[in-house]
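Q: What residues go here?
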């Protein structure tokens, strides 16, 4: 469309251009000096001036130049608008990818649960809130029993599937306010806000039974009976401690559960 408009304007200029005039009159023709240089590249001869007395030709030339200027301004506006739209679309796409990367950096790739770093960040926020409000905070640490045998007997793809099914079972049996994460190969951790040690022990037993009573069906039609050992601890309102103290106590409780035969729940107070 723009090419056709320009061609019509150039046709008008050629039609009213008067080449049969002596060179002496060229110095009096201001219109000749006003023509843009690019017009000469489109069929005009700079050595052929227009007749200064041809008023109608001058008016038409000026009209054509005005139309050409309007077209160039319109074209500039169109290109600028298009570039702005493309830039905005690119910025939106970059922002979307940035948000996706930020989310992915917080999650465990295999299970979709929080990873250790994000769990630590959220847990520290919760501990600050608990101290401010004067509420208890509990932690449950879980470790699948004899998981290495799964990888050795059935292969790592099946082992990955068992990890995923375990993550689903844990997520489905806790509150929306609880925070669950995968912090190791077959190790999981759950933070329970506003929960005492006794209440956390009840939750841990519920989770243990959920894994024990529901065999895992793999995609290759294998039935795997899984159990897990659980270590539980809690920070009461009057206690002063850190997330590391909770980790240490829960880890000791988990170690005790494994030493006592696995598939059981043990607790440990914060020292």
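A:
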């Amino acid at each position: 469309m723009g090419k056709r408009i320009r061609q019509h304007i150039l046709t008008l200029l050629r039609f009213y251009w008067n080449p049969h005039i002596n060179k002496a009159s060229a110095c009096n023709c201001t219109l000749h000096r006003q023509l843009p240089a690019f017009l000469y590249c489109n069929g005009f001869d700079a050595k052929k001036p227009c007749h200064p007395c041809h008023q109608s030709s001058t008016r038409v030339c000026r009209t054509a130049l005005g139309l050409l200027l309007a077209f160039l301004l319109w074209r500039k506006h169109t290109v600028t608008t298009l570039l702005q739209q493309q830039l905005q679309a690119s910025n939106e796409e970059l922002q979307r990818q940035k948000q996706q990367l930020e989310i992915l950096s917080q999650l465990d790739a295999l299970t979709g649960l929080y990873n250790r770093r994000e769990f630590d960040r959220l847990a520290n926020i919760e501990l600050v809130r608990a101290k401010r409000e004067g509420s208890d905070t509990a932690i449950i640490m879980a470790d699948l029993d004899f998981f290495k045998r799964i990888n050795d007997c059935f292969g790592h793809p099946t082992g990955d599937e068992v990890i995923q099914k375990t993550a689903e079972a844990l997520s489905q049996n806790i509150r929306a306010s609880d925070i669950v994460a995968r912090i190791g190969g077959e190790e999981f951790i759950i933070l329970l806000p506003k929960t005492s040690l006794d209440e956390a022990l009840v939750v841990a037993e519920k989770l243990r039974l959920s894994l024990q009573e529901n065999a895992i069906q793999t995609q290759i039609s294998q039935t795997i009976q899984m159990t897990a050992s659980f270590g539980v601890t809690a920070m009461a309102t009057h206690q002063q401690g850190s997330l590391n103290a909770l980790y240490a106590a829960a880890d000791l409780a988990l170690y005790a559960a494994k030493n006592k035969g696995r598939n059981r729940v043990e607790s440990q107070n914060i020292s």
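A: Context that may help when evaluating the design: Residues 18-53 have pLDDT under 50 and may be disordered. The first helix runs from residue 2 to 15.
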